[in-house]
Every structure is written in C-alpha cells, then in structure tokens.
Amino acid sequence: MLRVGLVAGAALLAVMAGRTVEADAQMYIFPEQGQSKEQQEQDQFSCYQWAKQQSGYDPNQQAAAAPPPPPQGGQAVRGAARGAALGAVGGAIAGDAGKGAAIGAAVGGGAGAMRRRQSEMQYQQQVQEQAADRQAAQQNFNRAYGVCLEGKGYKVG
Description:
The chain is mostly helical and 157 residues long. It has one domain (20-157). It contains 5 helices and 2 strands; from the N terminus they run ααβαααβ. The protein has helices spanning 2-17, 22-25, 37-55, 75-94, 97-151; strands at residues 29-31, 154-156. Helix 3 (37-55) packs across helix 5 and helix 4 (75-94) packs antiparallel against helix 5. The longest helix is centred in the last third of the chain and has 55 residues, at 97-151. It starts with a helix and ends with a strand.
C-alpha cells in the first residue's frame, strides 16, 4: 500500500518535472530545516498547486495566442480605387473626369494607408497588453509560490 502511494506520488512529481519550470526557474530554494529531496519535491508540488489556486494562473498552461495580425495590404489600393471612382464622378461634373480620378486616387490611397497603420498600431498594443498581463500573472504566481515554500521552511531567493 505504501509502495502504491509512493509510485503515485512519483508519477505526479514526474508530471511536475515535465512542466516548464517557469514557477521556480528564477528562484533558488534551500531547505532550512533539513528536508529531504523527496520532501522538497512534495512541498514544491503542493506549493505549485496552492499558488495556482491563489493566483488563478498556471504557468504550465499554454499562453493564449496573440490575435492575428491585421491584413498587410490592399487598404491603400482599395482606398485609391474608391477615391478614383468618386473623383471621376466629381471631375466629370466639373468637366475633367481624369483629373478628378487622379486626385481622388491620391486622397483615397493616403486614407487607406492611414487605416492600415492605425490597425497595425492597435495590433501591437494588443500584443503588448497580453504580454504585460502574462508577466503580471507570472509574478503573482511566483510570489504565492515563494510564500508557500517559506511557510514550509525553505529559504527562497
């Protein structure tokens, strides 16, 4: 019976060993009360579970994918085409459809390029916000993990 418990515990620890050790990658953990290596592994596992519960963050879970980047082309061309069409109509009314189309294309192309730049900036902001959120969640997890280990008699640095 004890052997089954040890095997199950070892299996759990093996799963933990396979994790991306982000939680303690930046931490040094020293047993101050003479804990054995096995006890330290059990304590680290239980503190990992507790920190995950307290912080609501699991460093082993794959991070959410970044939103897809905005389309790279076509907005300036579409804007130019729309502008040319509108410019041709306006130019025809004024007596020079070609000149109106050229002016409309230039204005429409510039507007399309501005929309593309704006969507690229919004995309970059989303990516940066997601990275900042992940970093803050990781820090909260690490703090909870360290507090738990210190409570179990380890020096964490």
